[in-house]
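Running co-folding for iron/sulfur cluster.
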Amino acid sequence: MSLVQNDAARLIVKNHLDQIEAPPSSLTETQKREKMQQIAELLKEHDATIIAHYYCDPEIQELAEATGGFVSDSLAMARFGRDAPQKKLIVAGVKFMGETAKILSPEKTVLMPTLEATCSLDLGCPIDQFSEFCDAHPDHTVVVYANTSAAVKARADWVVTSSCAVEIIDHLDSLGQKIIWAPDQHLGRYIQNKVGAEMLLWDGSCIVHEEFRARGIEQMKALYPEAAVLVHPESPTDVIEMADAVGSTSQLIHAAKTLPHEQLIVATDRGIFYKMRQAAPNKQIIEAPTRGAGATCRSCAHCPWMAMNSLDAIIDSLTSSDLSLHEILVDADLIPLAKKPLDKMLEFTASMKGV
Ligand code: SF4
């Protein structure tokens, strides 16, 4: 296994993070209800539905559920968006999720609360550098995580999410294929260790999951010795090694429900607690410690880009006269190329249980 070092891509992520403004202040319960009611009416008026990710703030997930929309992981969001009968999709998440919805349903209008909401994995894998890397290894099958731009997807043979990455790489390995994996190095390493496939890894990472530390979890385990540890595989290897359950967001919610433990130490974005509490209402859910627990930490178990999905921003996406602030557009030439590896994933996973 080898790892591509990419300083230029790391700098892009850092510069982007430096530009993030603080998330809006929290609303009173009455203000929240009023805004939700306004959005419900706007959705009807616009024939629109909300598709939200588990990492969004609880009020956004609550809104999606209350208005007949959907809350899930990126794989299920893609499926829901493709099959939704509405003409407009409001994707509350980050940009690659909006782009995926547009690629799968080019005839629909796809809006996002803000186009500024991106992802360190997407930013850390620029198409030009990635293409060069692929060109240098023409005998490899190119597999990219969903957290990538439309252009990177268009360059790939397969797109995967964390719900199905192990199974798809295992399948490709069984066919004797060598793999280029991008962009998350930790997830790539996890899959490589599990499957034993020959993989060249891009060195991207998630700024949220990379913050979790094995030592912090050890200290937490000392306080809660009976607790199970649940870890998303974008976390560092030594954190994954401490886990009782490793998996995608949907798989971790399922584990929270089915594991016998009464206490759960959870190493993923804290937005997931909203759904985890619904799934396991009587269990104690404990946030795994991160490296940066100080006041200046912008990614302490909550993605700063996911946090941009506010109720006000959703209202703006449905009322603004300037659609360029909200509408996802994907180059028409890229759509068929990016759709191909996405369709392969959707077809492959249609026969998998529990994804
Ligand atoms: S939590 Fe990490 S992987 Fe998810 S959108 Fe944020 S930066 Fe990207």
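Result summary
The radius of gyration is 20 Å.
The pocket of iron/sulfur cluster is lined by residues 55, 94, 119-121, 147, 206-208, 269, 303, 305-306 (CB under 6 Å).
Job closed.
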